[in-house]
Amino acid sequence: MKVSDSNMIPRASEFLLAEALEDTPIVLIQGPRQCGKTTLAKKVGQLRDYSYFTFDDEDTRQYAEDDPRGFVDNLPSHTILDEVQYVPKLYRAIKVSVDENRLPGRFILTGSTNLLHVQGFADAFVGRMQIVHLHPLSQQEIEQNGSANFVENLFSETFKTGRYERLKSNLSERIVSGGYPEVLTRISDRTHLPWYQSYVESLVQKDVVKLAKIQSSETFPQILAAAASLSSQLLNVSFIAKKLKMNHHTVRNYLTLLERQFLIERLPVWYNNQLKRLIKTPKIHIGDTGIASSLLRTNAQSLRKNRSLYGQLVESFVLQELKRQASCSYEPYKFYHLRDQDGFEVDIIIELGAFELVGIEVKSGASIDRSDFKGLRKLRDSQEDRFKCGVLFYDGEFCRKYGDRIYSAPIRMLWESESIR
C-alpha cells in the first residue's frame, strides 16, 4: 500500500491523547521508533500551544542531565519532551514539578522503549500519568476507515455475511510493506529493504548500544532475524541459541531487549481449569511484518511461494491489526493463544474483562473446511457463558456462519467498515 503523505493520516489514538490531556498532568506516548509518536504529539500539541524539546539533540540532553531540576523549572507550562528514555535523571525532577503544580496536560512525553521497565520511571509517575500506546499504522488507518474497529464488533457479534473480493497478491504486498509511515510513502517497493536495514542499524546505535550497553551490536540484527523466522510459533530460545551458536542466557536477554523496544512480543498462554494438558510456552510474534520481511529478505512474490513463512506472517499480520485497533479503545482487551498436548489450539484469544472472550483462527489460503473450526468449537463448548464468538480469518470470499457463534471471515473485513453491519 502507498500513501502520499503519512503525516496527514489521522491516527486512531489521537482522541485518546487529546482526552488524557484534559485531566492528567503527564501523558506518555510510547511505541517503536519511527511509528509516528513525535508527529502525533506535535499535531495535538500544536492546537494547545505546546513547546517541543527532543533528547535526540545532544545539547538538550546534556543540559537536562547536568541540571535536571533547573531544566524542568525553565520549561513552559505545556511541553513535549521527546525520547525521555535518554535522561533518567529527569524523572524525579518532573515528579516534583508536577506535585507542585498538577495542571492537566503539563507534559507530553514520548519514549521508544518500554519505560515501565526503566528503573525509577514507573515509581516516579504512578498516579500522575496516562499511557497512550502507539503502533505502526494499522490497515484501518492506512485505508482511513475511521469508523471501522473490528475488535469492538467481535464482542458485539455484528457481522455482515456475504461475498467479498479476495485480497490475493495484495495481502502479501501489505505484509511486506508493514505499517511504518516512512515506508508507505516510498514510490518503489524496492526501497523497502534498504529503509528497514537502515532502521535496524539506527536502532542498534541509538538505543541498544547506549541504553543496554551491549558491546556486540552486530548480534542484535541476527537475533531479530531469527525471531522473525519464528514469528507466530512457540518461543524456542534453545533453537535460536543453537542456530546462532550463542549462549542460551544471552539469547534470552537479547529477546527481552527486543521486546522492550517493541520489535517482538510474546503472546502468553490463556489458562482455564476446564482445559487440561495445556502447553505453557508463549508464542513469539514480530512487531511489524514489514521488518520481518526485510530481515528475511523476502518480497511479496517470494513470500507467496514460501507457504510456511507466508502462513506465519499472515497470522502475525492479523494479530498486529487486531492489537493496533484494540489500542485505540478504552476497553481492557488482553491477547493470548491456546494450545494443548493433543493438538487442540486457538491462534488468538481476546479477553475483555473477566466475563467475555473471542477466539480467532488464521489461515493464509482461500479454502477452508469444517475441521478448521475444531479449536474454536472446543473453546466455545468449554466457555459457554463467556464465549462471544469465534472467527476464522482466511483469504477467501465468504463471510459465513458455521454454527452457533462461529464464523468464517475474509481478512479484508478487519479494516473495511462496509463489512460491518
Can you summarize this structure?
By secondary structure, the protein is α/β, with parallel strands linked by helices.
Salient structural properties:
7-stranded mixed beta sheet, globular, alpha/beta, 18 helices, 421 residues, 40% helix
Task: Describe the protein.
Helix content is 40%, strand content 18%. By secondary structure, it is an alpha/beta fold. The strands form three sheets. Strands 6-14-15-13-12-11-10 form a seven-stranded mixed beta sheet, with helices on both faces. The chain has a five-stranded parallel beta sheet with strand order 2-3-4-1-5, with helices on one face. It has a three-stranded antiparallel beta sheet with strand order 7-9-8.
Topology:
Blueprint (H helix, E strand, L loop, with lengths): L13 H7 L5 E5 L6 H10 L4 E4 L3 H9 L1 H6 L5 E4 L7 H11 L6 E5 L9 H5 L3 E5 L5 H4 L7 H7 L5 E2 L5 H9 L3 H4 L7 H21 L6 H11 L3 E2 L2 H8 L3 H13 L3 E4 L15 E4 L2 H7 L4 H6 L1 H20 L6 E7 L5 E8 L3 E7 L11 H9 L4 E8 L3 E4 L4 E5 L11
Parallel strand pairs: 1-4, 1-5, 2-3, 3-4, 12-13, 13-15
Antiparallel strand pairs: 6-14, 7-9, 8-9, 10-11, 11-12, 14-15
Helix pairs in contact: 9-15, 11-15, 12-14, 12-15, 13-14
